[in-house]
Design brief:
Layout lengths: L8 E5 L3 H24 L9 H26 L2 E5 L1 H8 L6 E7 L7 H12 L8 E7 L4 H24 L6 H7 L9 H24 L4 H5 L22 H7 L4 E6 L3 E2 L4 H9 L8 E5 L3 E2 L13 H12 L11 E4 H4 L23 H13 L22 H11 L3 E4 L7 E3 L5 H20 L4 H4 L6 H11 L5 H16 L13 H21 L4 H30 L16 H8 L10 H27 L1 H20 L1 H9 L8 H15 L5
Parallel strand pairs: 3-4, 3-5, 7-10, 8-11
Antiparallel strand pairs: 1-2, 5-9, 6-11, 7-9
This protein binds uridine-5'-diphosphate-glucose.
Length: 685
């Protein structure tokens, strides 16, 4: 193939425009008919169910509006392909420096052995090693992480050459040795077993230090860096951590990769893939960042907690790319340093990827170390533009999303690149509670953006395409979905119990738009899941998590975001644990849902489930007594209530049949039953 010509990447546009028009047009017609029905059939004043009707109508208006927003990411998806051979041929000698930032914050829930695997994996990229610099920022200021890093540096001297010699992928030793075995007669066998032993020995030394809760004097004597821990140091008061401006003084790579501490590099070519976009002669100067999907190595076969976020990764993000670029999601993203530092896009300037690497002499490295300590302190930032216009934006639980949005508003585009071999593999939450808390943080942060001056429709107006503003709003309005979803999960069921019909009779023409809109949206969602490799059960699990997130995470996020806006509350970053105990882990592998504690979130889930079970039994009783007439007018409610009972099966199982530690505590079950009984006596208006 001729590598002297041609673009460094190619874009393919998604097909099926005619089908999309048909889908969007018919859904819109169906929604309009539903709204017409609602507006023209409101119960008379004084008639039972008037308020319930109004609430359901409001929820349907919202669902329609929200569905319209989601069209933005389905309209024009684009898929990208890179030509790394062309990049090597033209630019091998001129490849830019790349600074990799890994951040960690807590050695207990983010064990150092996980962190160093991430470090080792990125060090093994197929890239000139003198141009690759890896920085680890430890917000937890842990001596164990420091010690593990020293061990990793020693190990890297054997690991990196080994990876390059045998083209090892994944480049994280723990993942590699857990997956691969080499036949005894293979020529690489002895290298392989030596390396595995080296790794296991290192891992057990680190784990032993963690267990002991101390680092021995002999080890401390080996590196002067340990002396930093001799004073009264804590995670709240510690030496400076590595930041953007610090790396500027040390390596000043024009390209920056940010990753979470549990995101192992899994594809040796990712740096080169990213550069195919930044260095493309025709369009490279337009791109500020290249976001790769955050994929997880520990999701179960049927993705119990829907943590793979498959539809976001496979449908939404290519769609956003077609509208000007995906969101920056914190991890797995390559940035142009200039853009992170606040540079505005200009069509005329050809932004070269130059970045003079500071000359550091042996003698000056100590002075540099002292100087960078000062640079990295938070107080350095007082009365500066850091955290506002320069670097990541502070003060929002999703600092990544807001930072990416502002960069796009400065005129830059971003790229979404989904390579065949996953670029990164991380750790998804492995309990229900971790998943719900993580989504609470995301949806709260996103709503805060919507309510701030950075609202996509306001700040993005004239700065970005309307499609991109709509795309951002899908996530920014996640939390608001909680209210209409709760209305829909509760009110029709209560009305069923009280024999109040909220939907048209199955034999009426008005039933058709309801049946059409509901079935089409489920068929499309099922089809999207299946073509992207999900199982039927994974789709069903995703629907359950859709309900659980909306009724808990999003609800809490909604309330907290409003309180924050009113100045009553401050939001905090709850770090997602990367490890759980053995029992919990076994249940996760068997896809048994984990409850186990008495949280308010579980209480809400339990109440909604019990209420629906109660209403379904009552509703069936009504139909048996009243006959076919009642079945016709209550059919939709029976269907809705029945589906809610079915999807909540894990809650009933965890309340009544399970005895393990992950079941729902009896106190939660009793309280929710009590709430349901009280609700039964509340009159419906
Ligand atoms: O005070 C903190 C809190 C977190 N972290 C690190 O930030 C990363 C992300 O935190 P985590 O608790 O793992 O959050 P997740 O929800 O798993 O992460 C997603 O969501 C975050 C925003 O909510 C983004 O910052 C992340 O990049 C993105 O992967 C981890 O490496 C943490 O060690 C810090 O360095 N300091």
């Amino acid at each position: 193939m001729d590598t002297t010509e041609g673009r460094l990447f190619e874009v393919k546009i998604g097909k099926g425009r005619a089908w999309k028009w048909l889908y969007a047009g018919s859904m819109l017609l169906g929604l309009l008919l539903i709204w017409v029905y609602r507006a023209s059939h409101v119960p008379e004043a004084g008639e039972k169910g008037r308020w319930a009707w109004t609430a359901v109508f409001a929820a349907e208006l919202w669902f329609g509006f929200y569905w319209f927003l989601t069209l933005s990411v389905r309209w024009n998806p684009i898929y990208r392909f890179t030509y790394k051979d062309r990049l090597s041929h033209r630019y091998e000698e001129k490849l830019p420096g790349v600074d990799i930032f890994i951040c960690t914050a807590d050695p207990i829930i983010e064990p150092p052995s996980i962190v160093i695997n991430t470090v080792l994996s990125v060090m093994a990229y197929d890239y000139p090693s003198e141009k690759l610099n890896v920085y680890l920022s430890d917000d937890g200021c842990s001596i164990f992480t420091f010690y593990a890093l020293l061990e990793a540096l020693q190990f890297a001297k054997s690991w990196i050459p080994f990876c390059k010699k045998f083209n090892i992928q994944p480049m994280s030793p723990s993942l590699f040795f857990s997956k691969s075995t080499v036949p005894v007669h293979d020529s690489s066998f002895s290298d392989w077993t030596t390396m595995e032993k080296l790794y296991k020995d290192m891992e057990s030394r680190i784990d032993a230090a963690m267990k002991l809760g101390d680092i021995s004097k002999e080890i401390k004597a080996k590196h002067e860096g340990f002396s930093e821990w001799s004073s009264n140091i804590s995670s709240k008061d510690h030496q400076a951590i590595v930041k953007l401006r610090v790396s500027e003084k040390i390596s000043n790579g024009p390209i920056i990769l940010t990753i979470d501490c549990d995101m192992y590099a899994n594809n040796a070519g990712s740096v080169r893939d990213a550069l195919c976009f930044f260095m493309d002669e025709k369009q490279g100067h337009e791109y500020a960042f290249v976001q790769f999907p955050q994929t997880y190595k520990n999701t179960t076969k049927n993705d119990l907690y829907a943590s793979s976020l498959k539809i976001i990764q496979k449908v939404d993000f290519p769609g956003l790319d077609g509208q000007g670029g995906p969101l920056y999601t914190g991890s797995c993203c390559f940035h142009r340093r200039d853009c992170l530092k606040g540079r505005k896009y200009s069509e005329l300037s050809n932004v070269e990827l130059k970045g003079e690497r500071p000359q550091i002499l042996e003698a000056s490295s100590r002075i540099l170390e002292e100087k960078t300590k000062d640079l990295a302190t938070c107080s350095y930032e007082e009365s500066t533009q850091w955290g506002k216009e320069i670097g990541l934006k502070y003060g929002c639980p999703v600092e990544d999303v807001i930072t990416g949005f502002v960069i796009q508003c400065r005129g830059w585009k971003s790229v979404y690149f989904c390579p065949k071999r996953e670029a990164f593999l991380g750790l998804a939450p492995t309990t229900l509670s971790q998943t719900l808390v993580q989504h609470k943080r995301w949806s709260e942060g996103d709503l805060q953006i919507f309510l701030s001056k950075y609202c996509p429709f306001l700040y993005g107006f004239r700065r970005t395409k309307l499609g991109l503003q709509m795309g951002y709003s899908i996530y920014c309005l996640w939390a608001v979905n909680s209210i209409p979803t709760i209305i829909y999960a509760v009110i029709p069921s209560i009305c069923l119990l009280n024999e109040i019909s909220l939907f048209p009779n199955v034999f009426s023409y008005w039933f058709i738009p309801f049946a059409y809109v509901i079935s089409l949206s489920y068929i499309v969602s099922l089809w999207e899941s299946l073509i992207h490799g999900e199982t039927l059960k994974a789709w069903w699990n995703e629907k359950r998590m859709w309900l659980y997130k909306r009724t808990t995470s999003y609800l809490f996020a909604f309330v907290d975001a409003i309180l924050k806006m009113l100045g009553i509350n401050e939001s905090a970053f709850v770090i997602t644990p990367k490890v759980v105990d053995e029992d919990t882990s076994k249940r996760y592998e068997k896809e048994i849902m984990e409850f186990g504690s008495t949280s308010l979130m579980f209480m809400i889930l339990s109440i909604v489930a019990m209420l629906n079970l109660f209403c379904l039994v009552g509703g069936i009783g009504v139909v048996i007594v009243d006959g076919a007439g009642a079945l016709g007018s209550l059919f939709m409610q029976l269907l809705l209530c029945g589906s809610l009972v079915l999807i909540n099966f894990p809650i009933f199982e965890a309340s009544f049949f399970r005895k393990d530690k992950g079941c729902i505590p009896i106190s939660t079950t009793l309280s929710s039953v009590a709430v349901v009984i009280i609700a039964y006596f509340i009159p419906v208006f």
